[in-house]
Request: fold
Amino acid sequence: MTMKKTEIFHLPAPIVTILLIVVWFCIGWVASTLYQRMTDPSRGMIATVIGNIQAKAYAETSRQELTYNAIKSILSSLGDRYAEFRDPVLASRNSQELEGDGTAAIGVKGEMQNGQFVLTEIIPALPADLNGLKPGDIITSIDGWTIPADCTSNDVLLMLRNKDVPVAHLEVSRSGSQMSLDIPRQPVESVQSKVLDHQIGYLRFDLIGQDTPGMIKTEIEKLQSKNIQGLIIDLRYNGGGWMEATLKIIDLFEAEGIAYFARLRDGTEISYPTSSGDIAEKIPLVVLISHATYSASETMAASLKDRGRAVLVGETTHGKGSIVENISLADGSEIVFTVARWISPVNKTDYEGIGVPPDIDIADNSNSGKDGVLDAAVDYLLSHRQGS
Reply:
C-alpha cells in the first residue's frame, strides 16, 4: 500500500512567533480568569443569581432587565447622586451631543417629579408652544424611547435635543388623557456671539463639547475684529460637558497659572494648568450665571472668579462639584459615577452642593421681557471702562 504524500506548509518565522504569543496570551487570560473566580467568589454571584431567577422565578423577566437592575442597585449603593446607568439609546445620545457640533430644541423646560417628566415652562413662540404643549404636561416617550422612572431631568432634555431627528415624536399625558404630538426641532447654534451697544461683545454657549473651544476661539476673533471693549460670557443655561474642553476654554482667558484642581478620594490634588499667550487674556470680562449653570460651566465660572479674571453676575450656580467618568458597557449602555471633585484654583473651594455665588447678585427676570442680569453686566463693564 502506497501512502499518500503529506504536504507540509511552512509558516514564516515572524507569523509563527505572533501565533505563539497569541496562544500564550489566551492561555494566560483563561488561567487568570479561572484563578480570580476561585479566589473571588463574588465575581460569579450576580451571574448565578440572575441565572436562577431567569430559569425558576414565577415572575417572568428578561436577563437584560435583571442585569440592568443589578447595575442600578450597585450604583445606588454608592450614595453618589451623580451615579447613574444609561441604556444604549441614552448613552448614544449623550456621546453624540458631546462629540457633535450642534443641538436642537423644541422650547421647553421640565423636571422629574415622582418618576415622571413634567413640563414646567413652555417658551413662547418656539415649536412646543406653537404645537400645543402646556405646563404640567407629562412626557412619557420621546421618539419611541420610554422615559424610565429613575431617569434624570438632564437625560430627558438630552433626548429632546436630538438634532438628527427633525421632528420629535412625543407621547404626552395631560390630566389623565394620552396624546401623541409631533413637534419640529429647531436647530440651535452651538456658540452664539454678537456685538451689543457700547462695543461690548456677547458670547453664549449652552454645552461644552469637544469642538466647543475651537468654535469659541473663532467667535472671539470675530468679535475682536469689530474692536470690542469688553466681553460678556453667558453661562446661565450651560449644562456642562467635557472637563478637557473646559480647560481649553479657560486657557483662552487666563494667563499662566492653575485653572482648577481635581481632588481624588485619597485627598490627592491634581492641578490643571493654563499657559500665557492666548487671545482673550486681557479683555475685560463678565460672566452671567444662574441656578441652571451646571457642572463644567460652574468650574469655568469659579476659575475665572478665583483668578480675578471675571466678575460673576446673576444667581448662585447649581452646585455640581463632581467630576464623573463615563464607562461604556458591552451592549452600548454606560455607567456614570463620581471619580473626583473639582476645586477652585486659588481659594481651593469645593462647591459641591453649595454652588458658585455671584459677585453681583441679581435674580433672573427674563420672563418679564427685560433681561436685568445682562443689563447689570453691561453697566458693570461701562463703569469699569470709565473707571480705568
Confidence is low (pLDDT under 50) at residues 1-11. DSSP finds ten helices and 19 strands in the chain. Residues 189-387 form a domain with the 2-enoyl-CoA Hydratase; Chain A, domain 1 fold (CATH 3.90.226.10).
